[in-house]
């Protein structure tokens, strides 16, 4: 498997046109991903307008410190994967592979931290329908917040998991010289996917962790 | 004569040039600074401005990732259109849902 042996399929004029078609297709997919998470965010918005105080109370139950660290981890991983694409474009292989492995490791550490959060929420009785022990006037609204929380963060973690698998495959292939400055479209598309996962989290962070923190 | 052979050989090298190391690292530094600002401002009592700051900072962070890391700034303009379309439909979705939820008045039964 060598990038230099990569042939352009006959429907394309040249590698540039092939890359343009691939990135356009990826962006069309990413637009559907934006709307997939968008529905969950729209549901969140409506419920928050309906139960503003309960959402603030529920948000205070989340772990803001872990949430902030997780955000920093994902932002750093996004930079690492962007640098790895750059490195491949400049002809580097070892550093590019290392950066991809670093990105995957940061993704895994994100998942582990989120696992600890889920466990803490289980202990606190914040999992609707499974282990929910909240009482008081806001109990119903908090239940709705945590339903949305598990759907949003659960689907996000699923995306992170898929991203980690893709990144490891890309690291393996980069190490085995599948990509070089002339051909690296799959690596570029994987990086786009990972950045989108990062963008989703950029919005999850203030909506889940930062509500009602003042005072 | 074969038209393909006549065209000069184009490879990925003729696509968008990779961004500089500095721009990537500065973007990361800006993102982390904005994260700290976001966490800090959330702890201050700013009333409704808390939410404006939270979402405003998130939008700036997302734009940084989109333009620099995802290379929308230098890549094909068509990609910018597709990306904008995704967010535009999301804005329509949320705006129309909110327009319903915020303007609904509970009508008393006529009997």
UniProtKB/TrEMBL annotation, chain A:
Which UniProt keyword terms apply here?
A: Membrane, Transmembrane, Transmembrane helix
The Heme-copper oxidase subunit III family profile domain, residue ranges: 1-213
Cell location: Cell membrane; Membrane
Task: State the GO CC annotations.
Answer: plasma membrane
Q: May I ask which residue range the UniProt record assigns to the signal sequence? A: none
TM stretches of this protein: 21-44, 64-83, 95-116, 148-172, 192-212
Gene3D superfamilies tied to this protein: Cytochrome c oxidase, subunit III, four-helix bundle (1.20.120.80)
Keyword Membrane among record annotations: yes
Which membrane topology term applies here? Answer: Multi-pass membrane protein
Provide one Gene Ontology biological process annotation. Answer: aerobic electron transport chain
Q: Which GO terms describe its molecular function?
A: cytochrome-c oxidase activity
What InterPro entries does the record point to? Answer: Cyt_c/ubiquinol_Oxase_su3, Cyt_c_oxidase-like_su3, Cyt_c_oxidase_su3-like_sf, Cyt_c_oxidase_su3_a-hlx
- The answer to keyword Transmembrane applying to this record is yes
Database matches in CDD domains: NorE_like
Where mainly found?
membrane
What does the sequence similarity comment in the record state about its family? Belongs to the cytochrome c oxidase subunit 3 family.
This protein is called: Cytochrome c oxidase subunit 3
Its source organism is: Frateuria terrea
UniProtKB/TrEMBL annotation, chain B:
Q: Name the InterPro entries on file.
A: Caa3_sub_IV, Cyt_c_oxidase_su4_prok
TM segment ranges: 52-70, 77-99
Q: Which domain of life is it from?
A: Bacteria
* Major subcellular location class: membrane
Disordered: annotated span: 1-21
What is the recorded membrane topology of this protein? Multi-pass membrane protein
The subcellular localization recorded is: Cell membrane
- GO CC terms: plasma membrane
User: Has UniProt tagged this entry with the keyword Protein biosynthesis?
Assistant: no
Which keywords does the record carry? Answer: Cell membrane, Membrane, Transmembrane, Transmembrane helix
Concerning NCBIfam families, the annotation shows: caa3_sub_IV
User: What is the protein's name according to its record?
Assistant: Cytochrome c oxidase subunit 4
Q: Which organism is it from?
A: Frateuria terrea
Organism phylogeny: Bacteria, Pseudomonadati, Pseudomonadota, Gammaproteobacteria, Lysobacterales
């Amino acid at each position: 498997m060598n990038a230099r042996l990569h042939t352009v399929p006959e429907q394309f004029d040249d590698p540039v046109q092939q890359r343009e078609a691939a990135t356009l297709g990826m962006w069309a997919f990413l637009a559907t991903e934006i709307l997939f998470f968008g529905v969950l965010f729209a549901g969140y918005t409506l419920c928050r307008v309906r139960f503003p105080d309960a959402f603030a109370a529920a948000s205070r139950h989340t772990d803001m410190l872990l949430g902030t660290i997780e955000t920093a981890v994902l932002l750093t991983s996004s930079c690492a994967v962007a640098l790895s694409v750059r490195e491949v474009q400049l002809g580097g292989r070892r550093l590019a592979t290392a950066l991809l492995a670093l990105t995957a490791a940061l993704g895994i550490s994100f998942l582990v931290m989120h696992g600890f959060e889920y466990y803490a929420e289980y202990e606190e009785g914040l999992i609707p329908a499974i282990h929910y022990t909240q009482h008081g006037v806001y109990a119903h609204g908090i239940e709705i917040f945590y339903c949305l929380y598990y759907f949003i963060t659960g689907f996000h973690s699923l995306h992170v998991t898929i991203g980690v698998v893709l990144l490891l495959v890309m690291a393996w292939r980069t190490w085995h010289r599948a990509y070089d400055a002339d051909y690296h479209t799959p690596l570029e598309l994987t990086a786009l996917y990972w950045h989108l996962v990062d963008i989703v989290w950029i919005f999850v962070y203030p909506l889940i962790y930062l509500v009602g923190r003042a005072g | 004569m074969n038209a393909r052979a006549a065209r000069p050989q184009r490879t990925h090298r003729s696509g968008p040039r990779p961004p500089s190391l500095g721009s990537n690292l500065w973007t990361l530094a800006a993102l982390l600074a904005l994260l700290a600002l976001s966490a800090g401002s959330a702890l201050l009592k700013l009333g409704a401005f808390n939410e404006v700051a939270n979402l405003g900072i998130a939008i700036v962070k997302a734009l940084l990732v989109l333009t620099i890391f995802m290379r929308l700034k230098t890549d094909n303009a068509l990609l910018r259109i597709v990306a904008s379309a995704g967010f535009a439909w999301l804005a329509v979705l949320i705006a129309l849902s909110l327009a319903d939820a915020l303007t609904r008045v509970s009508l008393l039964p006529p009997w």
